[in-house]
Amino acid sequence: MKTNFERDLEFVQMLCNPEYLRWLYNGDWFRKEEFRLYLRRLRYFGSPKFRVFLHYPQCMAVLERIIEDESTLEKESFYEQLEKQQFFIWKNS
Known about the structure:
Blueprint: H1 4-14, H2 18-26, H3 33-41, H4 48-51, H5 59-68, H6 76-91
């Protein structure tokens, strides 16, 4: 059984996946206050103490972007750009 920390770690890194983000957006998850509060809580992974656990630290930039401007998720160009960036990072890692 996974701990809360493990679930949070897995979830925050899934934010790098444009298809998963699109699924969350289309499922109206971002309209739920509880979900938005959860996203804000995940900011703790940005601290040096927790950042070391991230295999995909770029997820923190995605997290901040969607917290600060949820309307970003309405634009197909956001998903396309994220996909290109992720491909570049994975290819050059």
